[in-house]
Design goal:
Blueprint (H helix, E strand, L loop, with lengths): L4 E9 L3 H11 L4 H9 L2 E9 L2 E8 L5 H9 L2 H11 L2 E2 L11 E2 L7
InterPro entries: Carb_Metab_Mutarotase, Dimeric_a/b-barrel, Rham/fucose_mutarotase
Keywords: Isomerase
Organism: Flagellimonas chongwuensis
Length: 112
């Protein structure tokens, strides 16, 4: 295994305190099937931060990871699809998202 690659992604939530609190509560107890799908895709570390209704995710992945393979695997996993549908009630794509995308991969502009 080579060095891990890091991605930053952005997403908005419905701008409502109760919805945001519910979303955060779900993320304190993510379903085991969802955790397994994350780990088995080559993601070694994942964090999500929030400022207001804007989310920022950091993922560290190995060479086996690809966004396309993750998407294909998730589409065949009923529990992940159930989770995504549930989370979709709280999520809103940021303005620069392409149609159908929720999380948007961000461009790294600084590295120290």
């Amino acid at each position: 295994m080579g060095d891990l690659k890091r991605y930053g992604l952005a997403l908005d939530l419905v701008d409502d305190k109760e919805s945001i609190a519910t979303y955060e509560a779900y993320h304190k107890n993510v379903w085991p099937e969802v955790i397994e799908s994350i780990k088995s895709s080559g993601i070694h570390h994942m964090e999500i931060y929030r400022a207001g209704n804007r989310l920022f995710m950091i993922m560290e992945v190995d060479d086996s990871f690809s966004f396309q393979r993750k998407k294909e695997a998730d589409s065949k996993n009923p529990k992940v699809q159930e989770w995504e549908a549930l989370m979709g009630e709280y999520q809103r794509a940021i303005p620069v998202a392409k149609p159908g995308d929720k999380w948007v991969v961000m461009d790294k502009i600084f590295d120290l």
